Amino acid sequence: GGVMGSRKPQVCYFYDGDVGNYYYGQGHPMKPHRIRMTHNLLLNYGVYKKMEVYRPHLASDQELTRFHADDYVNFLRVITPDNMHEYQRQLQRFNVGEDCPVFDGMYQFCQISAGGSVDGAVKLNQGLASIAINWAGGLHHAKKSEASGFCYINDIVLGILELLKYHSRVLYIDIDIHHGDGVEEAFYTTERVMTVSFHKFGEYFPGTGDIRDIGASRGKHYAVNFPLVDGIDDKNYESVFKPVIEKVMEVYCPGAIVLQCGADSLSGDRLGCFNLTLRGHGECVRFVKSFGVPVLVLGGGGYTIRNVARCWAFETGVLLGSELSNDLPYNDFFEYFGPDFQLHIQASNMENLNTTDYLEKNKIKILENLRNLPGAPGVSMQEVPPDTYFSDDDDEEDPDVRESQRQLDRRVDDDREFYDDDGDNEGEADV
């Protein structure tokens, strides 16, 4: 019974219409605009009607300091491009200024990203959804007291901390091309979170994620790292991802999963050097979903933004069980997707430096480490801490006024309806 027993998983999706306006600066590869492009594809494919769509609450200082240091959060809140000259010491100390620039609205951007991941976790905890999506999340490099790799606040750690209020074990899976170092570090010494990262390793940012890094003290064997090299393709990736995740699920039995879907592992990424297509990347998402465990699905890296939008739109379809047409619908950013205007991308002819032998050796070593697990750890859960509070003020809406956009977004169309009924409004309102 329950949510998980229903025929179709209940999917909720978090999006803030302002997110695409934040700008890291000229020439910076991280472009929040890609999240708006993704959302616009979902609108024009019509799949957003199959999900509950929410605007995330803005995470408060108090929420952010559940993981991050108070002085770091205070710094992020007060720093602006206009006053940064007064904060030279802190800029260095907190690693802000180069890869992680100070930009207008930086703190609000962090609040949106973190708010969506915490809200998604709360929905899963309350049994109101079995899948929660926040493409603005997945910022896996941020540390307790420092920014790193375009990430300031680690929304993933905050989402996992929320899930740990209800689940004794949470599994984190990371398919970004970069090692999920911030999340691994946060939970390196606990058995209550297992982190599994597949990433390029060897003279590559952030430099961590060796196969020999397996966790420490009570967390020993609860960190899993699969190092890869340039050019991995769909077939090879699947050949290691599936057996490792299958084994992890069998020995760890998590109550919830957090899946970071960084799209910089796709072929043709501006910063990446893997050769995955949407099918290979999306197959990981489908496989994780197939276990029927509640899952929080997040974004992450991805720097060829037309392909990031393609990827996350496709994967939203995968999570909904909707196959999207390969012909892209007309949308606000249609010209980005030329010359083919297709959803799917081709792998390139780059050389795959991952030999079968190399992948096999790593796979065997990791499966061996997983066999050393002392069995799924239990936790005596006495009192469940209160859910992170955010207002759900439907009561304040006037019953005499037509449904607000907020209420419309929550209405999920049943697949069994014969035709699209959008009420009386011919033109769709912007979400």
Q: What distance lies between the first and last C-alpha atoms, to the nearest angstrom? A: 33 Å
Structural class from helices and strands?
Answer: alpha/beta
- The total beta strand count reads 8
Report the principal-axis shape: globular
Q: What is the makeup of the main sheet?
A: 8 strands, parallel
Strand order of the largest sheet: 2-1-3-8-7-4-5-6
Q: Nearest-angstrom radius of gyration? A: 21 Å
Estimated helix fraction: 25-40%
Kindly report the average pLDDT value: 91
Query: Residue ranges: pLDDT <50 for 5 or more in a row?
Result: 1-6, 416-431
Strand content: 5-15%
Number of helices: 13
What's the SSE pattern?
A: HEHEHHHHEHEHEEHEHEHHH
Description:
Helix content is 32%, strand content 9%. The protein is built from 13 helices and 8 strands. An 8-stranded parallel sheet has the order 2-1-3-8-7-4-5-6, sandwiched between helices. Helix 2 links the parallel strand 1 (11-14) and strand 2 (52-54). The protein starts with a helix and ends in a 21-residue tail after the last helix.
Quick take:
The chain has 431 residues and is α/β, with parallel strands linked by helices. The chain has helices at residues 2-5, 33-45, 61-64, 70-78, 88-93, 106-125, 155-163, 181-186, 234-252, 278-289, 305-320, 356-371, 405-410; strands at 11-14, 52-54, 131-134, 170-174, 193-200, 223-228, 256-260, 295-298.
